[in-house]
Amino acid sequence: MTTLIDKIAWVRVSEGRLLGARSIGKAIYYIPGGKREPGETDAEALIREIEEELTVRIRPETIRYYGTYEAQADGKPAGVQVRLTCYAADVEGELQPASEIEEIVWLTYADRERVSQASQLLFDQLKQDGLLL
């Protein structure tokens, strides 16, 4: 039986680099976002998670779907999959790590091996679309 971890992620690309985050005590980077609360829409979850993690406010009218990527979940038993439903959006405020976030970084395609398997699929799409250095 496959277990699915369903997550929302914010794709923020600037000057050919993708915003990544690292949780306290973790080695791998991930795309900012998280799991929906019961009854939350994708947009509501995205807005809440990004404000909690990075102290910026997503402008709801700018949210646009980018893609969905599914792969083996890092650090989980075989068969546990993570699905990243990715959205781009504009924000207000200044990026600051908060909550469980220890570090935020701007990643290029050269950093592909430093992110989760599902995030690597996003990296491949961004590179193919000419958005990632």
TrEMBL record:
<dbReference type="InterPro" id="IPR015797">
    <property type="entry name" value="NUDIX_hydrolase-like_dom_sf"/>
</dbReference>
<dbReference type="InterPro" id="IPR000086">
    <property type="entry name" value="NUDIX_hydrolase_dom"/>
</dbReference>
<protein>
    <submittedName>
        <fullName>NUDIX domain-containing protein</fullName>
    </submittedName>
</protein>
<feature type="domain" description="Nudix hydrolase">
    <location>
        <begin position="1"/>
        <end position="128"/>
    </location>
</feature>
<dbReference type="InterPro" id="IPR020084">
    <property type="entry name" value="NUDIX_hydrolase_CS"/>
</dbReference>
<dbReference type="Pfam" id="PF00293">
    <property type="entry name" value="NUDIX"/>
</dbReference>
<keyword id="KW-0378">Hydrolase</keyword>
